[in-house]
Amino acid sequence: MSMDLLDPRERRKAGGALQGLGVVDCDIHPQFATPGEIHDFLPERWRDYVRAYGGFYRQPLADTLAHPRMAPDVARGDAWPPNGAPPGGDLAFMQAQHLDANNVDHGMLMPLNRGPGNQRNLEYGAALATAVNDWQIACWVERDPRLHASIVCTQEHAPFAIAEIERCANDPRFSQIMLPPKSLEPLGRRKYWPIYEAAQAHDLPIALHVGGVNGYSPTGSGWPSYYIEEQHTNVQGMQGLITSMVIEGVFEQFPKLKVVLVEGGVAWAPALKWRLDKHWKRLKSEAPHLKRLPSEYIRDHFWFTTQPLDEPPDDADLLETFELVGLDRIMFSTDYPHWDFDEPSFVAAKLRIGPEKLRAIMSGNARELYGLS
Amino acid sequence: MSKSRFVVARTSDVAPGTSHRVSAGGRDIALFNLSGDYFALGDRCPHESGSLCAGKIVGFAEADEPGHYRIVRDGEFVRCPWHGWEFDIRTGKSWCDPEKSRVRAYQTGIASGSDLAEGPYVAETFKVSVEENYIVVEI
């Protein structure tokens, strides 16, 4: 049995350890049942606008990504609901295939739909953000209270973003504020600070799910040729935004801010901490507003989600790396219904940890962060 | 433990180039028809347990060097619907790591309804009729 495969006995053991444990899935993607479903949530002005003109992203393509994906709709081949809705577009199918089947107690919605924050027409973007937020509540959370909404907003224009955050923040059906890591400027820049101020004031974590459309190539030297290359730029992007937020002093200004990195991997984090600490010791006169080691800010302010799970040849290396990151900062996620979905017993089997630590990663850490039952 | 032979489907249930999911002996099995030859694999990807029956049936892209590509053995691999691991339908072996990584492959055979009426077979899901041919899997 190859080391990167699951030993069926480990899998059964992990299944046993998960018995009766309701997991928290920190990354579920709801989809519009039909492309027009969201139009019901837009005011008449913007319904007319989107029918006449459509959206304008910061790239030559509308309503799609610059790079082809692994699978249609980025989805698991078996996630297409029989009623004709796209993957993630039918709650009953999602319940049967995922929420019930995998014993999900709580699922955090990560709506990527239409990217309100990526729209060049700011007023349309703001109306779309409101619509996507209302749609999450009406079509998902109200129909299944296991699901929790994420506030989307126009991150490039703070006044509109703050208005939307204030509109939603006191509604407990929203658990966090979601921003795209591919923003117009590195996320530590001052233009984004009002959003962090609001997040801290409302005690809402900021969730940064990989993606966004900023029109820039994902690497520092242009466009990748292959999806495997492009996909790995998610890691570089996460490293860049952690570095920006830490070095710009976001966490000195907002000492209670919590940031969740979704789908960007975990295992690279220790190396980033070591390297930033090394540089900081030599270069701290450049950024004297930083009072602590970069690694300390990272340890205190960032949470990481598991999917897509790092799969080293030896499972023991995974646990050792996770311990360096901090087992209280790692939260289970599936990415349902996307093609690189991780199944709970697979993650549990790969981790090979005792029941208490396993419960923390699969469930407890997220319950604590989001204040879930 | 001696193997049992299960009648799992009519040959007409599995059109050429398609798959068909059956259960026999407590196991989920993916049946495939490659131009009239029938193959049976365990319906669980050894990686994360995706159902291979829900996967695409594909050929394999091969290259001896960058820039020179060809599809070989078109229709002889199944690609897991989750993470895209590819398995040789004839053997169950993974394309990437054929020696160590494989899905369970079962012996299959075809038997006529009249044979089955007399033979030592187990039909779990339906009654056999003498007019048709059946796929038999050894477990």
Class inferred from helices and paired strands of chain B: mainly beta
Radius of gyration based on Cα positions of chain A: 20 Å
What pair of chains forms the biggest interface?
A-B, 17 and 18 residues
Question: Looking at the structure, what is the overall shape of chain A?
Answer: globular
Number of strands of chain A: 8
CATH class of chain A: Alpha Beta
Low-confidence stretches of chain A: none
Which percent range fits the helix content of chain A? 40-55%
Please tell me about this protein's structure.
The complex is a heterodimer of chains A (373) and B (139). With 373 residues, chain A is an alpha/beta fold. Chain A has a single domain, classed as Alpha-Beta Barrel (TIM Barrel), CATH 3.20.20.140. In chain A, 40% of the residues lie in helices and 10% in strands. Chain A is built from 13 helices and eight strands. In chain A, strands 1-2-3-4-5-6-7-8 form an eight-stranded parallel beta sheet. In chain A, β4 (174-179), α6 (193-201) and β5 (206-209) form a beta-alpha-beta unit. Chain A starts with 7 loop residues before the first helix and ends with a helix. The mean pLDDT of chain A is 94. In chain B, β2 (19-24) and β3 (27-34) form a beta hairpin. Chain B is elongated. Chain B is mainly β and 139 residues long. Chain B has a single domain, classed as Rieske Iron-sulfur Protein. The N and C termini of chain B lie close together (10 Å). Helices cover 3% and strands 47% of the residues of chain B. Chain B contains one helix and eleven strands, in the order βββββββββαββ. The model of chain B has no long low-confidence stretch (mean pLDDT 86). Chain B has one helix spanning 113-116, and strands spanning 5-10, 19-24, 27-34, 37-42, 56-65, 68-79, 86-88, 105-106, 108-112, 122-123, 133-138. Chain A binds chain B through residues 1-2, 4-6, 11, 70-71, 76-78, 339-343, 346, and chain B through 46-51, 54-56, 79-84, 97, 100-101.
